[in-house]
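Service request form, structural biology core

Requester: graduate student, group of Dr. S.
Request type: structure prediction, single chain
Budget code: on file
Notes: please return the result as structure tokens.

Sequence provided:
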Amino acid sequence: MSEPQGKGPSDRFEVRVTADSHFAWVRTRLALERTMMAYLRTSVSLIGFGFAIVQFFEGLHDLPGARHVRFPDAAWYLGLGLISCGVAAAVFSLREYQWVIRYLWSGSFAAIAGMRPEGKNTPLFATAIVLVVIGTFAFFAVLLRLV
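Core staff response, request fulfilled:
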């Protein structure tokens, strides 16, 4: 579905500057924040679980009387896969979050968005960046077998 010539995505709707439309915009923004937090919660779980799997099975090899494992690196690969999925989910959610924030502050939505034309940043974006850095560090720590 293509847009008419010369119209942006927010020009498709008639935006009325009323209290109802402003609070609808606020509810949409808060829903975006909740969605981003859900993405980050999932990313933290994937990164943490992948790291825990690697640590658990590395320690299992050192136990006295442990049997020989048929695929000794399977847990290492699984841990790397889970950590990389967690980092990828955080990166993709950051890009989606930025795109939707730009959309919500663009065009005729800016009249109902808020008091400042450039928008307001929340700590959620910084938290997501820190999570990506920690996840990347965990990935390379496991990859290079530093832990």
